[in-house]
Amino acid sequence: MRTFSDSHGLRWTAETISHGRTSAYLNPKVHRPVVQFSCLDERGPKKYASLPKGREELEGLSDDELVALLSKAEVH
């Protein structure tokens, strides 16, 4: 789990919630891990986005990349 601030100063957590259970051959082709974003400062819906292609973990993303991913995330 990662904690970061967006451009408005709101604090968010980002957590990988889906890892896929397909074979090693199919997994990179059909599934990317899903990231759940939760705002720590305001009550609101959670947002979800897939990790960028070629990325498997949140730890490999900078805070700026997390903010960019948050901007693409959708409420489900």
Task: Please outline the helices and strands.
Blueprint: E1 2-5, E2 11-18, H1 27-30, E3 34-39, E4 47-50, H2 63-72, E5 74-75
Antiparallel strand pairs: 1-2, 2-3, 3-4, 4-5
- How many DSSP H or I helices? 2
**Percent of residues in helices:** 10-25%
Approximate strand percentage: 25-35%
Using only CA atoms, what is the Rg?
Answer: 13 Å
* Structural domain count: 1
Ends distance: 20 Å
Spans of at least 5 consecutive residues with low confidence:
none
Order of helices and strands: EEHEEHE
**Strands of the biggest beta sheet: in what spatial order?**
1-2-3-4-5
Query: Mean pLDDT across all residues, rounded?
Result: 86
What structural class results from the helix and strand content? alpha+beta
- The best one-word shape is globular
The largest β sheet comes out as:
5 strands, antiparallel
Overview of the molecule:
The chain has 76 residues and is an alpha+beta fold. The protein has one domain (2-75). The protein is 18% helix and 32% strand. The protein has two helices and five strands. The chain has a five-stranded antiparallel beta sheet, with helices on one face. A hairpin with a 7-residue loop joins strand 3 (34-39) and strand 4 (47-50). The longest helix is centred in the C-terminal third of the chain and has 10 residues, at 63-72. It is globular, with a radius of gyration of 13 Å.
